[in-house]
Amino acid sequence: MTDLTLGRVTADRERLLALLQEYGVYLGVVVLFLVNTVFTPHFLSTENFRTQAVQVAPVLIVALGMALAIGSEGVDLAVGSVMALSTSLLSLYLGYGPGIAVVVALVGGAVVGVANGSLIAFVGVQPIVATLALMVAGRGLALVLLPQLKDVHDPAMAELGSGDALGVPYVVLIAAALALLVGFVVRRTTFGRSLLAIGDSRPAARLAGLPVRRVLILVYVCSGVLAAVAGVLATARLTASDPSSLGNLMELSAITAVVVGGTPLSGGRIRIGGTVAGAVLIQLLTTTLIKHDLPPSWTQIAQAVVIVLAVYAARERGKR
Amino acid sequence: MKPLAPRHRTSARTLLATGLITSLALVSGCAKSEDDTADKDKGSASQSEQGQVVASPSTGSGPTCSIDAYGAEKIDLKSATVGFSQSEKEANPFRIAETASIKAEADKQGVKLLTANAQSQFSKQISDVQDLIAKGADLLVIAPLNSDGWEPVLRSASAKHIPIITIDRKINATACKDYVSFIGSDFVEQGKRAADQMIESTGGKGEIAILLGAAGNNVTTERTKGFEDRIKEKAPGLKIVFKQTGEFAREKGQSVTENLIQSKPGITGIYAENDEMGLGAVNALKGAGKKPGAVKIVTIDGTRNAVQGIVDGWIDGVVESNPRFGPLAFQTLDTFTKGEKVSQDIVIQDSAYTKDNAKSDLGKAY
């Protein structure tokens, strides 16, 4: 009798946990949203939504690339440095016009991606170590190229950073488009399928004849380019290139967004919707604490709590 | 990993390596940035830079230090080797101007200078200073990253009786025993003067916000303390309703201010503890469609961009924190090594930029 009740309780608990893992991040967003609606003055205004959306965009774009890397059972620690590198390159090449400068910045991101991917796919270095190397090197290179903050006066860049189409800022439109694109790639393309297969089990993928190396390199190129896009957008918003502080701790924010969003660190599964919600959740959390003027250290503690909860969920998932 | 035919592998690697190197070469080779001409103007204008002026007389009031008390030997500064250890990456204007000033003064005096940069890592600064001593520095000028943790260095320096001067930040040790003297600004005073400027701009009434610097840094705590004390004492009508960190960075200053002006639309003034955050606040106000001067901004540091902000009408006042330690540091070393007394605490006088002098003094900003 006792055994039976216990069994049912565990089953309920497991189902609840599974549900929480699946939809917890959306629940978090809804709860924070409601709390803010009630307690934060001037929260329900278009201006506020616009600000929040604009602020979350770079993190979200980086997190999309990070989701791909994590889905392939890797991680890309170099994203913050890639943002710094792209802002340096952008500023250095702006003399040729914004179009060319943006292309150069994105190529810079792709080159870092190729380096990361090659180290992982050809040399066989662990992703965390390979991208750690590029994280240090990328930031260093960015500072060599542009030793200090430099203003960006180009009107096209300013328009990209603060302009909008039909009331929706370009930055937000770009982030939304990229989220849809990455979602499509993961679900509907051979590349996306191979990526997940490799993330699930690399030996099995290789035995099945998948082009493991090519896919892995492409994953890190995507991650690098997405980080470079985020770097360009952040520069446009700031109207200045600041390679020493741009993208600092961005890799952690991105990993948090991905993990909180329910993508397991063990690879083989990517949740793009969850990643978007994860990024929004962290943004709302930070905003709530700032708007209520709570001590800055609280923000860090709150973020830590969210990460611990997410890791706890991931652990449960790993067990089953 | 599945073994591959060696030749294939080598060629792939070579290809990648060549590709990476070519792209690196391209990057540095044909760069063309936006405003090269403006930078040249900046270069020539900074010739007119001002050295620091001592606020408290170098001897007289306050405890002093002489070469006998310190236990070092007299040397001629001209023939000495001076070691300079910079704390942070030279990525912000303050650090760039500080290092440049030390180098320029060493050149002028004909002193041999050894430099090291700790890249914001304290352990590296400790080994930097030990390296400088090993390389034969007779005198040391240190811009400390932290105030604590200097024991190992001070021990090896005092074993060799090397006089040490710290600039811009203090170290927690005994003056005239572990180091000779400290040259720097009074950060509490800077905060007070920023408060005075804020009271004047706002008329002493309204709600104001503080953009704090990085947490756990004496610059942040002292600039906050000075500001809050003076506001409490002189303008009880000014309420500090918002205090958030912008981590001394423009981007963070901008995103925090964006949130601030939405949750508290009636804000009258923003005190930014450095120029970069102040400029971020200006960006945020521009983005929100505010007019210049609608929100009063007071910042500390005196970088060129911020002073330009006063000229453009966005910023109301900038309290200077003078980074040009070169002349004063070498003068102090000279006096000390000749055997005369120097003050243990040399507080420098910082000027300020307001609407009245911003345009004419723009060339003095760094």
Model description:
The complex is a heterodimer of chains A (320) and B (366). Chain A has 320 residues and is mainly α. Chain A has a domain at 44-248 and 263-270. Chain A is built from 13 helices and 4 strands. Chain A is globular and about 70 Å long. The mean pLDDT of chain A is 88. Chain B has 2 domains: 47-184 and 323-349, 3-Layer(aba) Sandwich (Rossmann fold), CATH 3.40.50.2300; 187-321, Response regulator (Rossmann fold). Chain B contains 12 helices and 15 strands. In chain B, strands 1-14-7-6-5-3-4 form a 7-stranded mixed beta sheet, sandwiched between helices. Chain B is globular, with a radius of gyration of 24 Å. The chains are: A mainly alpha (320), B alpha/beta (366). At the A-B interface, α2, α3, α4, β1 and α10 of A face α1, β9, α9 and α10 of B. Chain A: It is a multi-pass membrane protein. Chain A: The chain crosses the membrane at residues 23-44, 56-72, 92-112, 119-146, 166-186, 215-234, 296-314. Chain A: It is found in: Cell membrane.
What's the topology here?
The complex is a heterodimer of chains A (320) and B (366).
Chain A (H helix, E strand, L loop, with lengths): L1 H38 L6 H26 L7 H15 L4 H26 L3 H19 L4 E2 L3 H8 L1 E2 L2 E2 H19 L1 H11 L1 H6 L4 H27 L1 E2 L8 H11 L11 H20 L4 H24 L1
Antiparallel strand pairs in A: 1-4, 2-3
Chain B lengths: L5 H24 L6 H10 L7 E2 L9 E2 L1 H4 L10 E6 L6 H17 L2 E6 L4 H13 L4 E4 L8 H9 L4 E4 L13 E4 L2 H16 L3 E7 L5 H17 L3 E8 L4 H14 L5 E4 L2 H13 L8 E6 L2 H8 L5 E4 L5 H12 L4 E2 L1 E5 L2 E2 L13
Parallel strand pairs in B: 3-4, 3-5, 5-6, 6-7, 7-14, 8-9, 8-10, 10-11, 11-12
Antiparallel strand pairs in B: 1-14, 2-13, 12-15
Helix pairs in contact in B: 4-12, 5-6, 7-8, 9-10
